[in-house]
Each structure stands twice: as structure tokens, then as C-alpha cells.
Specification:
Blueprint lengths: L2 H4 L7 E5 L9 E4 L21 E5 L6 E10 L9 E2 L1 E3 L10 E9 L5 E9 L10 E6 L2 E9 L14 H4 L29 H4 L3 H6 L25 H4 L2 H9 L6 H7 L5 H8 L8
Parallel strand pairs: 1-6
Antiparallel strand pairs: 1-3, 2-3, 4-7, 5-7, 8-10, 9-10
């Protein structure tokens, strides 16, 4: 688990100079005391009107982090990608230009290692565990601690719910369903003759039938009674017993029986084919 995910250490997002707590922005932390207990005020000296302090911020609203920090001389060229730290000073304060603090900032999504903390010591022989020496600046030693971090996940924005949505509830009784109303049916033409079965329908049945299926279902067989022809009415003709006796006398023949009964050897045709056609003598 990274330091940022554990919630112990956040990366630095900015480093700056400030005159006092009144000039220090609210999202910055002022370094007022060194690790060895000395006031971290860069005291007045020749050419300086008042002291000043280092301060840093860990506010991730800017979406950038301090990936590196260096101390350079006023005669050195600022490294590529670095910039001087900002200054939040009152009108009577000036910063010495002999030693300058420069930082390199990078977008959060582009780096995995950043500066997690900076500290000051007054004694150059003192070593800070887990910290890296940055440089001497006006009688103080600047240290930094680097490490991996993870950018915080995006927070879900609260959505505003309208009054209409909030008024919905699953526990409320549903509104009574309106009775189904039959669609208006077109008037039936008088010239169309309906069958007896169709004509016997009540008016309410016609209204409950949809208009799309009212006329399409009428066929030529509507109203025609179904009955057998008298010739096929076995019970009426008294031939049921006779037909049953005939059916019982039917013998099912096998293939061999059929071949024996209806065999044909084609001998007549064969003998006719062998006959010699008489020749005509001259």
C-alpha cells in the first residue's frame, strides 16, 4: 500500500517564501522551527530588511505535484523544467538572491514519485533518516523526502433530485386503473349480409370486438350447418352391420402371395420375339 493510500503522507504541490503567518496562504504550512529546535526564520543580514520563512502546500486542487527540489547559486543556470518558488512577502521583506530554491512540478497522472516532505536543520553535520540532502541555504540545510504516491480517486458529485422524483415511492398505492373503453367501430354497411351465426350476436359482443377483426373473420362457411350426406350415414341406412362383416372378411396379403397370384412369365412375348420372319422368294 502506498503512503498516499494509507492516508499518512501526501505529496507536496507547491513550495514558497513567506514573511510571516499573516502572509502565508491558508493552504500552506509555514516551517517555523528546524528539526534541531532552531527558529527557521532566515534572519536579517546585510542588505536584508527582515527575515522570511519557507512554506509548502499539499493541496491537490491544482492537479500538480512537486517531483523534485534543488538549491542553486545565483550564478547557476536554472535547470530545464524547473522554476523559482513563489513568494508571499510583505512590502518590507526581500529574499536573498545568492541561493535560490527551484522546484519541478508535474501533473499528477504523469509521475509516480514526488517530494513528500521537506525539513530544515541548523547544523550541517546532522543527518535525517529517510531524507535526502538538497543543499545549504543561508545557514540552514534543506532536506527532502521522496516516495511513491497514488492520486486520489474521483469523488462522486451529489446529484440534485427534483421534487417530482423525490415524491415517487414504492409504498404508495398505485392509481386505480381506468376501465378499458372500446374503440369506436365504423358503421357496418347495410349491403353486407351476415350469416345467421354472426347475425345472432348481441350488440355488446360487437362492441367488444375490435374494429380490425370485425369483418375479416366472416367467411362463406359462417352459418352453414355441418351434416353428413344420407348415403354416408351408416346408422340411417342400416348398412353398418353389413359393412362391418365385409371389413372382417378382408384378408391382408403378403408380398409373396401377391407375386404368386399375379405372376406373369412373359412367355408369349418371348416366343413371339424368337419367331423367324419368313423370307419372300423371288
Amino acid at each position: 500500500m502506498s503512503l498516499m493510500e494509507s492516508g499518512k503522507v501526501l505529496p507536496l504541490t507547491a513550495v514558497a517564501w513567506t514573511s510571516n503567518t499573516g502572509c502565508c496562504p491558508k493552504d500552506f504550512v509555514l516551517i517555523s522551527i528546524t528539526v534541531d529546535g532552531v527558529t527557521a526564520n532566515f534572519t536579517r543580514s546585510f542588505g536584508m530588511k527582515s527575515g522570511y520563512y519557507l512554506c509548502y502546500s499539499k493541496d491537490l486542487k491544482s492537479s500538480v505535484v512537486v517531483s523534485d527540489i534543488q538549491v542553486i547559486s545565483d550564478k547557476d543556470t536554472i535547470p530545464h523544467g524547473y522554476s523559482y518558488i513563489r513568494e508571499f512577502l510583505d512590502s518590507k521583506t526581500t529574499v536573498s538572491k545568492k541561493k535560490r530554491v527551484v522546484v519541478r512540478t508535474s501533473p499528477v497522472a504523469n509521475v509516480e514519485t514526488a517530494v513528500l516532505d521537506i525539513k530544515l536543520t541548523a547544523k550541517s553535520k546532522m543527518l535525517l533518516q529517510h531524507y535526502t540532502y538538497v543543499g545549504d541555504i543561508h545557514g540552514y540545510v534543506l532536506w527532502c523526502r521522496k516516495g511513491q504516491f497514488s492520486s486520489p480517486g474521483p469523488k462522486a458529485k451529489p446529484r440534485s433530485i427534483s421534487l417530482d422524483v423525490r415524491s415517487l415511492s414504492l409504498e404508495e398505492p398505485s392509481a386505480p386503473a381506468l376501465p378499458l373503453r372500446p374503440r369506436d367501430l365504423p358503421p357496418i354497411p347495410q349491403q353486407i349480409r351476415l350469416s345467421n351465426r354472426r347475425h345472432s350476436l348481441q350488440a355488446g359482443d360487437v362492441q367488444n370486438t375490435s374494429a380490425d377483426n370485425s369483418l375479416q373473420t366472416i367467411t362463406a362457411l359462417d352459418g352453414v350447418p355441418f351434416s353428413l350426406h344420407p348415403d354416408f350415414d351408416l346408422q340411417a341406412n342400416g348398412t353398418a352391420l353389413q359393412l362391418n362383416s365385409q371389413l372382417n372378411n378382408i384378408r391382408i396379403k403378403s408380398v409373396k402371395d401377391i407375386e404368386n397370384e399375379y405372376s406373369y412369365t412373359f412367355t408369349v412375348e418371348e416366343s413371339a420375339a424368337k419367331r423367324i420372319r419368313p423370307s419372300v422368294s423371288t
